[in-house]
User: Fold 1,2-phenylacetyl-CoA epoxidase, subunit A from Streptomyces hundungensis.
Amino acid sequence: MTGVTATATAAAGTDASYQAVFDAAVAADERIEPRDWMPEEYRSSLVRQMAQHAHSEIIGMQPEANWITRAPSLRRKAILMAKVQDEAGHGLYLYSAAETLGTGRDELLDKLHSGRQKYSSIFNYPTLTWADVGAIGWLVDGAAITNQVPLCRCSYGPYARAMVRICKEESFHQRQGYELLLALSQGTPDQHAMAQDAVNRWWWPSLMMFGPPDDESAHSAQSMTWKIKRHSNDELRQRFVDIAVGQAEGLGLTLPDPELRWNEERGHHDFGPIDWTEFWEVLKGNGPCNEQRITQRRRAHEEGAWVREAAASYATKHQTQRSRSQSQSQSQSQHANGEATA
Ligand code: FAQ
Assistant:
């Protein structure tokens, strides 16, 4: 919050006056910062969304990492490794941002591992061919950017700032996916068919990434009032479809929807019905890869325990050394002052 509202916060005495200061800050498009007063529901809804987002980034490493050892060239392998590392970094920024709300990373990971928190439905689908890496970059990162660019203007400062860097990196990811698919699409007939097959399989799950339709979205209305979300699920889904149609033409590929066509009156593309039964089933844990993803995540966490312990001991050792040398230099300067006075 700015100086004016921060002063008002300090002067405020009751929950109602704190609430009024918070509401005014949100209405004025000011950022809410970690030390500002905020309603408990705002805090818990942010933790819910940010945790789900962070979990998606680290679980999202799995489908693509599956192809690192089988990338068709050194160049493709280097690009894919960098992309998968970026996703780990995004998880790190988001867990750190969630920590500013008073929720530790251990607690969030525990909730992920025990199934009490979600990650994006999209990562429960398998990557069957190399073209899937391209389809993920183009469609999944493309959908993620469409959803996440407005989050750079989210009312909670640490989340909004994390999203600025994430979106820049996602934009690079999206282009590499497009370029990969273009190379396949313009390659041999088999390569073209592989690219088309990947797009056919990833199109509908990508549309589901935006969440349920607006009339079934439990959190949208409140999140938009708080300016956590700036647009509804359906608005963003429509924006993505409108962008993807032209890009598919550029790729020389088709989108697997016979009902997809431009609607002059609406100024948007109409598209066919989404299979929401499939979406809710995936959320319940019944997607093609739910079990594999969470088992692999738990195993990675257990196998990484020694790294976390080593990093913690290293930090403690350096902290102790720093405090020791600080107190030594303090006593030396006291001693020197004493001699000078004498
Ligand atoms: N999957 O009331 P709403 C990426 C849940 S990152 C699973 O509409 P909300 C980068 C929702 O949590 C992809 N669950 O919820 C990458 C809620 O359940 P809850 C992740 C979903 O929060 C690329 C319930 O349904 N991006 O791809 C999904 O207002 C390549 C009711 O829904 C983000 O997380 C879903 N698709 O809107 C990485 C962006 N949709 O919590 C690697 C930030 C809904 O009550 C490789 N998040 N649910 O138990 C958001 O923008 C929002 O949270 C939405 C959902 C839009 C996802």
Observations:
- Residues 288-341 form one domain.
- The first strand starts at residue 261 and ends at 263.
